[in-house]
């Protein structure tokens, strides 16, 4: 297999695992096993106001019931304030991050003007030259400064193991994205990049809804001198209304009275055959590891 494989599953305790999140958990676990690697769990509880008391422990129990047991200690984002601050300080020292004083209303107004001029609705870099008397609210990455300093192309290209060739002009399609939010909480982009680097993650397997984040994370990885993992984005599980199942739209927590039934549904979403009716959970997982290896032979 070459390079040592380290994968991860990173749930957020803003709710319990549902059918969609089990697909991502199972896929990341199977990919790690098929590569003979390790599978880690990271609790993305950095957005503390939205976290539900007891949800993290229940998520661990849900994973264990499905036979998905992580390797090593769980990493908790809520305990990594100093690490994230050090990463931001590193970017500030190089002139690649700047304070932003724009309110949500300011940004929406600027985006409305951009759309009226037939430009993409991205953050227009209002505070890049300076705050102009406004108090600092958030911190943003100066995407263009990073690309110019490191000699990076304007278009970030990468290959998804399932979706194929991908590309995005982060500066034009996203703009200078947030690293630390106006409420003082760390932004997802910074936390996930720093943590993937700290945990030595070599392969990221996650839901397709996160595909659009990848180019930003690659730029940030390059800015922080971190390696870029291999990516595979799994199919989304849709609700009866055709929208992605999520905690935000009321997805129901997994019913694990019959864990094999829940796992079979997740396996079907991943184009894997159903387990034998009399199979145990360990037997089903062992079979799916072989099926996954045959289906995804790419590195």
UniProtKB/TrEMBL annotation:
Extent of motif 'HIGH' region: 11-21
Organism, scientific name: Limnohabitans radicicola
Catalytic activity, EC: 6.1.1.-
Domain of life: Bacteria
GO biological process: glutamyl-tRNA aminoacylation; tRNA modification
Gene Ontology MF terms: ATP binding; glutamate-tRNA ligase activity; zinc ion binding
UniProt short sequence motif 'KMSKS' region, positions renumbered to this chain: 244-248
Protein name: Glutamyl-Q tRNA(Asp) synthetase
Manner of cofactor binding, per the entry note: Binds 1 zinc ion per subunit.
């Amino acid at each position: 297999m070459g390079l040592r494989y380290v994968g991860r599953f990173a749930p957020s305790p803003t709710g319990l695992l549902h059918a969609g999140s089990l697909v991502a958990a199972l896929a990341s676990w199977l990919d790690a096993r098929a590569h003979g690697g390790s599978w880690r769990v990271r609790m993305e509880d950095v957005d503390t106001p939205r976290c539900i008391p007891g949800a993290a422990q229940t998520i661990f129990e849900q994973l264990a019931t499905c036979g998905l047991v992580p390797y090593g200690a769980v990493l908790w984002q809520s305990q990594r304030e100093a690490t994230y601050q050090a990463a931001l300080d590193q970017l500030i020292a190089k002139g690649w991050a700047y304070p932003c004083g724009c309110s949500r209303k300011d940004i929406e107004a600027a985006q409305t003007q951009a759309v009226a001029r037939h430009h993409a609705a991205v953050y227009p870099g209002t505070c890049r030259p300076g705050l102009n008397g406004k108090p600092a609210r958030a911190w943003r990455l100066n995407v263009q400064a990073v690309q110019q300093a490191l000699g990076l192309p304007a278009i970030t290209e990468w290959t998804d193991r399932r979706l194929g060739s991908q590309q995005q002009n982060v500066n034009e399609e996203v703009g200078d994205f947030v690293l630390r939010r106006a409420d003082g909480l760390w932004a997802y982009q910074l936390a996930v990049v720093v943590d993937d680097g700290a945990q030595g993650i070599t392969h990221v397997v996650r839901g397709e809804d996160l595909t659009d984040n990848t180019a930003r994370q690659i730029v940030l990885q390059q800015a922080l001198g971190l390696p870029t993992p291999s990516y595979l984005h799994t199919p989304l599980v849709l609700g009866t209304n055709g929208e992605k199942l999520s905690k935000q739209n009321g997805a129901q927590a997994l019913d694990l009275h019959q864990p094999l039934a829940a796992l079979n549904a997740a396996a079907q979403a991943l184009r894997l055959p159903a387990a034998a009716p009399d199979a145990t959970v360990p037997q089903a997982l062992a079979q799916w590891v072989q099926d996954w290896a045959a289906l995804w032979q790419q590195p």
